[in-house]
Design brief:
single chain, alpha/beta, 5-stranded mixed β-sheet
Amino acid sequence: MAQKKRWGKKYEDKRNWKEYNEHLIKRGEFYINPKFLDGWLDELKEMNFRKVGQPYTYPDSMIEFLGIIRSKGFDYRALQGIMRVLSKKLGPFPVISFSQIRRRINKLSLSFKAKSDNLIVGCDGSGIKVSNRGEWMREKWAVRRGWIKVVIMGDVNGNIVDIRIGNENLDERDASREMTRKNGRNISKVTMDGYHDCKDTFELCDKLGIEPAIKIRENASGKGLDPRAEEVRLYQSLGYKKWAERKGYGMRWPATEGIFSAVKRIFGESVLSHKPRNMYHEAGLKFWSYQKLKDL
């Protein structure tokens, strides 16, 4: 079969490898950096101020530290072992139990926010496996547990702006519109693939004053005066290549595909939890940890 010729310029690697290697080395410092020890007492004092009931014994910064390591695939008992060693070498400080680690990590607030105004963002969805047993086991024993769907909104610099997580029935278009509506004041353009080519999405962008860069389906009709019909006529008059260049459609990759690729490569594409609620939280923890790493 003849290989299709790729249009556009050939990729040229212009990375500064010295800086890139140093960045990769700093990831290790990011994973194992017990900086929570520096402000342990002051943080607990603030957390327990006017708190009713049993006071906190372990600061939130320590739980965030353990949450990041959890994202790398460590189970909760292993996390307790890590804290035991750190207590012996750097402490002493009280060692948290694995059951309390699980409770505190599952209560972590995994929040994201826009880095600036007038952002160019992309929306897309991808799947996270509920186990790492592989397709052979799934086919051999006819065991199907479904999968987790993650829909993200990211900017062209690879930062996560917002995220929605659910089971495989999560509506990607509804989730994308919800995130667009929530973050509309910070967005100037939104890029999406052809799955999002629907009237509701174009009307929302028109209402919020956001420029849409949404790929149009081949059988789309340009009849009418609504925002989608106008975009269809523009797309059909220019053709895909010129339309993509004019709209900057290629910027969708670093805003979505690049983030998914990095998260799955660095933190894995399966979860260890068994309860659906904990599965969704663990999947979100991977993306939260990625953004923490990105903010270094």
